[in-house]
Amino acid sequence: MIARAFPILSTTEMRRALAFYVDTLGGTVSYRFPETGEPEYVTVRLGTSSVGLGVNGRAKAGPPDDRFELGLYTSDVDAVVARLRQSGVRVVDEPKDQPWGERMARVLDPDGNRVTLFEAE
Questions:
Q1: How far apart are CA 94 and CA 38, in angstroms?
Q2: What Å distances lie between residue 83 and 25, 32, 73, CA to CA?
Q3: What is the pLDDT of residues 21-57, one digit of tens each?
Q4: What is the pLDDT of residue 64?
Q5: How many CA atoms lie within 13 A of 84 on its CB side?
Q6: Does an H or E element contain 74, and which?
Q7: Which of 37, 59, 69, 119 sits CB 3.0–4.6 Å from 77 for a disulfide?
């Protein structure tokens, strides 16, 4: 039986990915390999969830495709989007109330992965 799942994202530049997921989104590094030197893999804790970041020289930074999307819940989508925009993050869908009752917005991480922000009640 599966106890929990988390996405693993490929990145061409770990420092840039960590700047986004740790510095900009406020995550914390809970695991890194190797322990010293340049990391090849890092697990970042975001609230009660985690995301893995792995260096992959074949990963292509650029426009997102439809194979992956990371969903994140926050208490104030508008405030988070404003802070991300100030940090230079590309906003692709502005905050908007959805027909199913959630407010959401979409941004791109430095490698072009879609990050969808949902407002938790």
A1: 35
A2: 9, 27, 15
A3: 999 999 999 999 999 999 999 999 999 999 999 998 7
A4: 60
A5: 28
A6: strand 69-74
A7: 119
